[in-house]
Amino acid sequence: MSISISRNINLLTHRIYKFLKDFPLTHNYIKKISYRYRLISPCDSKTIAKKTVISCLVSWSISISVFLLIFLSHRRLINLIIVGVAILIINAEVVSRMAKKHEIILLIETQKMLSEVVHYFYVEYRIDDGIYRAREHLSPDMKVVVDQIYMLLLSKDREESLREYYDNIPNKYLRAFVSQCVGLMEYGDQFIDEKSLFVRNIENLQREIEIEIDKLQRLNMEFMGVILCVISPIFCIELVKKFAISLKVSMVDFYYGQKGFLLDIFLLLVIVCIYVIMRKSAEYTSFHQSSHKWLYRMDEIGLFKRAMDNYCEKNASKQERLQRKLRNSGANIRSRHFVLRSFLIALSVFFLSMGITVYIHISNKNRLLVVKSHEIEMLTTMAKESQYESMINTIENYTKNHLEKPDLMAIDKEQIKRTFKEDGIIYNQQIADALAGDILRRINQYNSHRISFLDLLICFLISFIAYYLPDIILMYSSSVSRDAMEDEVNQFNALIGMLMHNETMTVKRILQEMESFALVFKQSLRMCIDNYSSGDLEALKELKEREPYEPFRRIVDNLMRCDDMPISQAFNEINIEIDGYMAKRRLANEKSIKKRAYRAYVLAALPFLLLFAYGIMPVLVSSVNEINQLLDELKNTI
User: Which of 181, 246, 209, 188 is nearest to 111 (CA)?
Assistant: First the structure.
């Protein structure tokens, strides 16, 4: 019965996945999530489809709940914007958390698989039989992984099968393990200091996985609460508004008017920027490397193409420096397209700012035509509550009449008061003064709400800032990548320590293994491998010149020395300090996590401080202004 239910659930999941993948609106979204799971674990297509659908359903369920909670309760443009921002963050965070949890589980299971393989290798003295025996004690996902490796080892052309495995399986630890297994099957085992080289390398690989698990778990734990603190103010904006209005009813015009709208937008932008910085700190790895096809299409448009050609020609050295920064930060975008994207972002922000400006003017015009009772209270203290309704009607009618027939209506305060008497509307002197002044204010403000040069200038300044926003994020990514560089070089040293004693090992093979582990240096290593056949020393020299990071350059120097001496001798310092490298990696991870966490704690406090100021400062300023107005009225009365 349970098997039948499970089969039906799997069938339903696969149908949902196929529908979402074929549906145009969700095709790219599903592709990104499934790519991420495939990058983490080489599961079968059904397992990846199941994990992708579960991630989507969880994310979309939370998003729908947020939409119902925020927008449908208060249908305003700002709430629609808040919902949009909240849904984007929730989707990114939920998918990231679920994928990260799966990645940690997979690493733990990989570590267990390696232990089982080493145990049965001692029992069977054959790696293929050891893997087959170890399979019985593994989880279903790992059984799929082990089956792929087992079939590879039994293939007739293992080298070709290994290349295909590398092309299809991006998991660096599995690739390193398979490489060791193929080397053992092809060339046999060696003994270094009376210990099996294969077992020694697998133990070193287990240490690497243990360090990676510790780093991921620490980052996951440190940033879970911090990111929650950053995004929670999004859901508190409406509550803070209601709290401030409960303190002072007249603040409803501020919070639901032009100033409140702009403050809401500012607060959302700050939260989004801090969240992006948090994600960069918590997760350096770029799981989905976009192909940027849309930028290639935009670059083919005549106007954009001519503009970018002229810009790149005039700023060639600047473009070269930018390309190096992009490469060091792990971005797979060309410097030309990076500039084009910045320009398109600025252009989009400009038009969006203009749209918001038009909306604010229209909204304020409509607000000026409607009078609320608390506005009468603020207008004058001389009126009785029974007069409020007639005063509201007077202001609304005279304002609308003048705007409809501007040539026939008076526009002077004294003329408006005389019109009151002619129409038989009688108030005492102070109330008539206040009403006429308010009508005149509304008319003048209504006529002033049009697109001005100042509006255009502000929109241009905002778009100017938006143009440099990708550069600011790139600067931060580069600072984060420096920590990743150190970690990656330590990984290279540990990897070379596993490969250096293999008598059949070549420099090109070491470069290929380094590339499979690399992220920051991946593009440079790929270029070196491509150019290696046309001149090994020249390719290594170009690699050294391309990457200025000194510890990485020392590795390249040692690779160049391999022409004159065995690889084990060229990297003898690694052999001596292998335990030191492991300790150094742990210490580097500890320092990196602490630095990221400290930076995150400081930034996480900013949204709450801004939210607190958002709820308290306008009320305090308004109260002080009212006290000053009351004092002025008392002076005039006396």
Answer: 209
